[in-house]
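Example 9 (inverse folding). The structure is encoded as follows.
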């Protein structure tokens, strides 16, 4: 038997099942394979995780805790009433029989109640012990109803402090009134003993210490940072949320946050609306956009809130206030010299960082048990017989062709086993590569892939499919440490590598993904895996999905996420886009969103979305100037081929434009197709998708189209795939997630409180609206901005709606109408899909003459 230090014997086979684990000494590995006794190790961590996340377990535990809380309350109250009588019984403890003690106990919950209460009430907290049942009850309720009645952590901290503090105050009173005999049960041991210990030192100063303790707690608990004098003339800041398009509610800040009432000067409307809308109302009010009244809210909080209270509020509120000077809104005038509060560091000091997740503060991330645990997933391990047989066949085949090898090492992956061969000295690698087909034939298995040489190693790899493959469950990916601890912005699980490592990528860095694969090879499952990873990791305020599904059936289940994660055109009814015309409009709308976001970034002086959001979170960007927290947008297109067939350039151009420019502003594309031919994956699209993934395809040509190399035609299907990223090719097994798992996940998210509607993308007037049939356009009724828009277009020689929109600060609809009028006046040419229109007037002088003529007519 070989010793660990001995160099590998020629032609020996070694298993390498788990690269992630430290490698065993050779001796042990050989032993394991000789005996053939590879015992499956039981995963205690996963079993415990399963147990604790099982909803039946949490429900049972929750109810148990609530019952326990009631029991503790009864025991404590009873002890406070009868405690003096029970003390001696409990203290007598082991000195007498249990039955004897039990009969003597006066506690309503018998000896057990008296004993527990004796510890918590008498020895520790006194009357403050009553905090304990409240904490236990809240914890039980959280487990039972899966929502918090009160913020558990914060309430627990507050109650524990209250218990100790009460004990200290009462301890002081008991000590100074010399009533320990009768009243020590009320203050408990902590309060009494502490006061006794300190009284000798400080005397009545104890009270000052206790008072200071309270002060320090308040400072930290409520994050008080200064003691400015309260301005009683100030009106209280209010916070508002829309209930529907026409009305919105404001509600008192103090209802929502645990912060102390803000005693700062009144905030003006140009401060971030998460904390304050406008100092309009003293009391909770329901406000019509054009009129503000002081009626208290009678309706409870709406079941929905707007996308980002930041964005929506600032827009609507601006309309309500600035467009209606005579309205009843009493806006506090802002003196001209007053500094922009958004340049004032104090905002964070006063209100803390902006938290986008407060849009949906009670949102619960999906739990692991929504996904199925496939217990037999590791069943497909490769037997020693299979390994030895393959090894011998590889050796024999190579020997038949005159190739000698030094050693073979096997790495068993979930779908294929990689045999790494160290050829004998003098053997040319190209010779082995040229024998690819012969080796495949002799191993009589599909899916042999030869990697010669293995990048970074002096070996040759031969991948042979396993007879029984391992099912990689999505649950095992989600529960893995790498995924749970991943700090990626948009973490997506892609699968398991040949060495059984979990492969996670950051979509934000990829920054787009092109996916191909013949029908039935796992593309839809792959898209579901990607969506599942994102939904597990992101809060609805941080991520929006635009789902395009020309096949109409693949992504329907995600409908339920409409009010949480989906984004769509404002006039569109279906949250999942299936109609080609709507797809074109949506893509163009995303281009407008991209332009808008670039403008916001420019104004903010930021280079990318991360910097921008970080600045917004620090309250350095003013929502009144259009700034808002920008969620990531992930566009998923399931089946590009259909779209390219029907809309060609109209789809290609915006897709390419988005792929080219959108990475910095947080729009990422995942585009899938079953036909990876050059007329679907055009050069323009391909050039802008550096990360590409291929499931099994039907021909080497298809493989080349998608990956720039062959190999994908030799995959074995069912989620077996090749990922090409930064010129590396990695073979992965995609995890499996079934439709009913997706259904459970979407139900879990969809049944929670969501936004009032899907995230609204900017309006885009498609070709029907933008075609500009000049017969319908009345040039006598020109837009007041007509001349200005015409000059702009001619100066820039660019007939684009978004240029007008940006430079003249107009809404999309109005800019669209202006372009129609410009077309009717023959200043710009007709609509040409997503391309900018031709400008028909070449210089300003000609334009001015045209404008004069128009005025005379
Ligand atoms: N990762 C995987 N692990 C195990 N089995 C898989 C995996 N992916 C797909 N399969 C199997 O292959 C079948 C087809 O997968 P899928 O529906 O994703 O194919 P597709 O490429 O989207 O096909 P189409 O283009 O026709 O929609 C699945 O029903 C499943 O049985």
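The amino acid assigned to each position is listed next.
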């Amino acid at each position: 038997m070989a010793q660990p230090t001995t160099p590998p014997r020629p032609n020996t086979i070694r298993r390498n099942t788990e690269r992630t684990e430290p490698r065993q000494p050779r001796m042990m590995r050989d032993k394991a394979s000789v005996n053939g006794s590879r015992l499956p190790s039981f995963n205690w961590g996963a079993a415990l995780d399963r147990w604790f996340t099982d909803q039946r377990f949490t429900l049972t535990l929750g109810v148990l805790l609530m019952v326990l809380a009631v029991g503790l309350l009864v025991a404590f109250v009873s002890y406070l009433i009868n405690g003096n009588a029970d003390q001696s019984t409990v203290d007598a403890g082991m000195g007498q029989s249990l039955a004897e003690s039990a009969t003597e106990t006066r506690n309503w919950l018998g000896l057990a109640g008296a004993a527990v209460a004796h510890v918590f009430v008498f020895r520790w907290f006194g009357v403050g012990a009553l905090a304990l049942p409240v904490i236990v009850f809240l914890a039980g309720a959280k487990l039972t109803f899966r929502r918090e009645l009160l913020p558990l952590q914060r309430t627990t901290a507050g109650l524990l402090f209250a218990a100790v503090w009460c004990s200290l105050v009462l301890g002081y009173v008991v000590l100074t009134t010399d009533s320990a005999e009768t009243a020590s049960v009320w203050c408990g041991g902590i309060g009494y003993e502490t006061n006794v210990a300190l009284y000798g030192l400080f005397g009545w100063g104890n009270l000052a210490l206790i008072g200071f303790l309270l002060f320090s707690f308040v400072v930290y608990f409520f994050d008080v940072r200064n003691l400015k004098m309260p301005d009683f003339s100030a009106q209280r800041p209010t916070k508002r949320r829309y209930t529907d398009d026409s009305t919105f509610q404001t509600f008192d800040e103090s209802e929502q946050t645990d912060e102390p009432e803000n005693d700062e000067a009144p905030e003006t409307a140009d401060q971030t609306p998460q904390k304050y809308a406008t100092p309009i109302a003293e009391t909770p009010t329901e406000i019509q956009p054009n009129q503000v009244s002081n009626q208290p809210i009678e309706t409870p909080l709406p079941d929905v809130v707007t996308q980002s209270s930041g964005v929506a509020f600032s827009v609507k509120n601006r309309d309500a206030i600035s467009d209606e000077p005579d309205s009843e809104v009493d806006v506090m005038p802002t003196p001209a010299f007053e500094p922009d509060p958004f340049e004032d560091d104090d905002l964070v000091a006063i209100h803390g960082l902006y938290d986008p997740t407060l849009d949906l503060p009670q949102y619960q991330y999906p739990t692991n048990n929504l996904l199925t645990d496939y217990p037999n997933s590791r069943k497909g391990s490769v037997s020693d017989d299979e390994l030895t047989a393959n090894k011998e066949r590889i050796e024999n085949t190579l020997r038949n062709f005159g190739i000698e090898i030094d050693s073979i090492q096997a790495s068993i992956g979930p779908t294929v086993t990689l045999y790494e061969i160290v050829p004998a000295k003098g053997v040319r690698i190209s010779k082995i590569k040229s024998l690819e087909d012969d080796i495949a034939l002799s191993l009589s298995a599909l899916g042999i892939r030869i990697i010669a040489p293995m990048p970074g190693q002096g070996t040759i790899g031969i991948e042979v499919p396993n007879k029984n493959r391992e099912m990689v469950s999505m649950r095992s990916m989600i529960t893995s440490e790498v995924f749970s601890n991943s700090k990626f912005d948009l973490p997506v699980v892609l699968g398991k590598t040949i060495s059984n490592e979990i492969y996670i990528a950051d979509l934000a860095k990829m920054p787009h993904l092109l996916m191909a694969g013949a029908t039935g090879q796992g593309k839809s499952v792959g898209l579901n895996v990607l969506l599942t990873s994102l939904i597990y990791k992101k809060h609805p305020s941080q991520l929006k999905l635009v789902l395009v599904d020309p096949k109409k059936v693949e992504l329907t289940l995600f409908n339920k996420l409409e009010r949480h994660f989906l984004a769509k055109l404002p006039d569109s009814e279906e949250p999942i886009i299936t109609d080609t015309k709507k797809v074109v409009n949506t893509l163009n709308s995303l281009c407008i969103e991209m332009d808008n976001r670039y403008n916001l970034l420019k104004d903010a002086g930021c280079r990318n979305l991360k910097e921008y959001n970080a600045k917004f979170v620090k309250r350095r960007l003013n929502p009144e100037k259009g700034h808002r927290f920008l969620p990531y947008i992930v566009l998923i297109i399931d089946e590009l081929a259909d779209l390219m067939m029907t809309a060609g350039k109209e789809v290609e151009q915006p897709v390419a434009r988005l792929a080219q420019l959108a990475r910095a502003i947080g729009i990422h594309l995942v585009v899938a197709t079953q036909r990876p031919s050059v007329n679907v994956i055009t050069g323009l699209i391909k050039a802008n998708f550096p990360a590409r993934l291929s499931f099994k395809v039907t021909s080497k040509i298809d493989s080349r189209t998608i990956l720039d190399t062959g190999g994908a035609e030799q995959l074995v299907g069912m989620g077996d795939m090749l990922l090409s990223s930064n010129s590396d090719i990695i073979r992965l097994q995609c995890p499996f997630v079934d439709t009913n798992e997706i259904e459970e996940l979407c139900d879990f998210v969809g049944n929670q409180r969501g936004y009032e509607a899907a995230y609204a993308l900017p309006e885009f007037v498609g070709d029907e609206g933008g075609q500009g049939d000049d017969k319908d356009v009345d040039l006598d009724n020109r837009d007041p901005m007509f001349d200005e828009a015409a000059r702009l277009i001619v100066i820039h020689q660019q007939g684009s709606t978004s240029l007008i929109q940006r430079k003249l600060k107009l809404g999309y609809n109005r800019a669209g109408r202006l372009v129609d009028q410009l077309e009717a006046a023959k200043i710009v040419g007709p609509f040409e899909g997503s391309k900018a229109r031709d400008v028909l007037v070449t210089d300003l002088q000609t334009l001015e003459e045209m404008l004069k003529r128009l005025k005379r007519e």
